[in-house]
Write the structure tokens for this entry.
Amino acid sequence: MIFQFLGTSAGEQYPAFWCRCENCRKARERGGRNIRKNSCAWISPNIMLDFSPDVFTQAEKFGIDLTDLEYLFVTHSHGDHFNLFPFGWRYLNPKIALPPSKDAVAARFTPLKTLHVVGNHLVCRALDERLVQKTGFKLEDCAMRLHQAEPFRENTAGPAGYIPLRANHMEHNGEKDALNYILFLNGKTILYALDTGWFLPETYEVIRRFQYDLAVVEGTFGYGAEWESHMNFRKLEEAFLLFKKDGLLKPGASFCASHLTPHFSPIHEEIAPVLADKGITVAYDGMKLEI
Ligand SMILES: [Zn+2]
Ligand SMILES: [Zn+2]
Ligand SMILES: [Zn+2]
């Protein structure tokens, strides 16, 4: 199966929206893999991790048809990972007969498979408020179902088994509601840990029970800040060494860094070879992995 990164930046993107520092300027000048949009990923044929604001543009750029999407795992409600706006456009008024007459008004005129959204209580509440409470839609008319995930409660969504993990990442009112996911799919095991901060002890206890074909871990602040809510390259390398020590990476597994800010992660073409020497793959937008 193919795992493809559609975005690999942190919230402010890379180059940062409003910054002209050296890294941001270099990224604009050189383009290509140095340009990062907000983090999200696609697993063929129908699974996504996070739903960032640029996702439709990125999907078109990389040849992915998002109308195939059936299972969406959302890590948390921060705007760089979860964009509510496009979901309302899934609504199909059941009173409209198909094919539609020319005076019919709707954003969708074709059937869709049900989209199962797995997320924490804030993600589920935001979708329910936006689609059901405020707009008066029925979720089935948006071809959607919500599945509230609780930390460490193992469950399944279609072909994927999953364990939500408690991230060390403030989401709302100082609460650590953000989730990371372990996914079990087609005999493969994937860890998706953005935004995570250094692993909480109870979270690492669960992570270490499995061996991974792919681990995606944030390197957010690069050579910069030491924060609780986000990792930098020092913590990323420490995580990689810990995974190696504990034998968590299967032979041939990729340990990938994503969710990078320009402040202070160097541009991709400078940092990728440096981290590759240490065994860490720096992801870039559009990067495909066969796992
Ligand atoms: Zn983020
Ligand atoms: Zn900058
Ligand atoms: Zn966040």
